[in-house]
Amino acid sequence: MKNLIVKMLLLVFAICVINVACKKVPDGFLSPNIRYEETPILVPQGIVKVSSALTLDGSAMPIKVKLLHVYDRATGKNVDDLFNKQYPIKVWTGLYDPKIDNTLEKINAKRKDSLVNPISINPASGQLEANIATLNLPAGKYEFDLEVSNSAGTKTFSKIGKFDLNAAAPFEIPAAGSQVAFKVGAENITKTLSPTLISVVKLADAPDKVIVRMVDKNGVPFNAAAGEIGRRPLSGTAVGFLQTMDLYSLSVTNFADRMEFIYGTVPFPLSSLGNGFNYYYRIPTQYVHFDDPTLPDDQYSCNARFSFRAFIPGTYEVTVKIPGVTHR
158, 247, 294, 311: which is deepest, by most CB within 10 A? Predict the structure, then answer.
C-alpha cells in the first residue's frame, strides 16, 4: 500500500512537471516604459509634420501601434469625433521632379485623391504624422492613448503622448536676402552690399500664384517685361545660370511692375534643385544707380537674391526691396 501511494505521488509530480514544461513561454518582451522623447510634439496647422518614433525600451520588434483616443488637455474632454473625421487631400503616388513635372497634367498623374485623417499614428513606429488637413482642426493642446502590440502581447498606454496644434504662417522666408555688385566685363570683381529686404503678404486662397515685385530703395519697380530683370549667370568660368523661381513654376508672366509665377503643388517649391529655396536675379547696369560712390554708373550690375517658400495654397505677393539702389 505504501509503495502504491509513493508511485501515485511520483506520477502526479511527473504530470505537473510535464504541464509546466509544456506551458507556452511569452515570446519577446513588451516594456511598460514605452514613451515619446518628443513632448509635446509641435504640429503647425496645415503643414506636413512627422514626429520622432516611440522609444521602445528594449521591446521586441516588430511592434504594431494603434491610436485609441484623443483628449483636450485643457478640459480632459474626449475629442475623438474631431480626429476621426477624414478629409479629401491629394496624395503623391510617384516621385515629383520639377524639371519633368512642369504641367498640372503631369503633376496630377502622380497624385490621387484620398480621404485621410488630419493626424494619424504610424502603425510600425508610433510616429505622429500630420498633413494639410489639420487646417480643419481647432488649434489647441491635446494628448492621446495608444495600444501597442508585439509577440509578447498587447498593452494600453494612457495619455502616452502630447501634441500642440499651433497656428502657423502659410509661408516662410528660409534665408536672408543678398545683394552683390558685379563689374561688367570682369565678373571676378565684386562688392557685397546691403542685403535685399523681403516682405510677403498672402492676398487670397486662390489661384495658386506668386507675384514678385523687385523695387529700388524708393519702391520704384523694375520692369521685367522690358528686360530690366534677368537671370544671374554662374560665377567664374562656369556656363549657365543660378536658379530662379521660373525653374519651379508651371508658367511665368512678366509685367511692367512684377513677375507672376503659377505653381502646381504645395509646399512650393516641394524640394530644392540646389541652393536651398533661394532665387537669383540680375538687374543690368543701365537700369541702376548705386549710392556707393565706388560703383559708378554703367560699370556694375545689381545682383539681388531672395528666398521664399509657400506651405498653403493661394496667391502671395513677394516684394524684394534693394537698398542703396535707385532705378534709372
Answer: 311
SS3 label, residue 88: strand
- Cα gap 72→281, rounded to integer Å: 48
What is the rounded distance in angstroms from the CA atom of residue 86 to the CA atom of residue 88? 7
CATH architecture of 26-166: Sandwich (2.60)
Beta partners for 177? none
Question: Is the separation of the CB atoms in 280 and 303 below 8 Å?
Answer: yes
CB atoms within 10 A of CB 287: 19
CA–CA separation, 274 and 303 (whole Å): 18
CA dihedral sign of residues 101, 107, 110, 116: positive
Instruction: Measure the CA–CA gap between 168 and 138, rounded to whole angstroms.
Output: 12
Q: Where are the alpha helices (DSSP H) in 229-305?
A: none
R_g of the chain computed on alpha carbons: 31
| Paired strand residues for 305 | 178, 280
Grid coordinates representing 319 are: 516684394
Kindly state the cell numbers that stand for 162.
502630447
Cell of 54: 516611440
What phi and psi values does residue 248 have, to the nearest 5 degrees?
-100, -5
Domain(s) labelled CATH 2.60.40.2710 in the chain stretch across 26-166
- Per residue of the chain (328 residues), give pLDDT as tens: 555 554 555 554 555 544 544 444 457 899 999 999 999 999 999 999 999 999 999 999 999 999 999 999 999 999 999 999 999 998 889 988 888 898 999 999 999 999 999 999 999 999 999 999 999 999 999 999 999 999 999 999 999 999 999 999 999 999 999 999 999 999 999 999 999 999 999 999 999 999 999 999 999 999 999 999 999 999 766 689 999 999 999 999 999 999 999 999 999 999 999 899 999 999 999 999 999 999 999 999 999 999 999 999 999 999 999 999 999 9
Spatial separation of the C-alpha atoms in residues 206 and 204, rounded to whole Å: 5
The one-character DSSP state at 40 is S
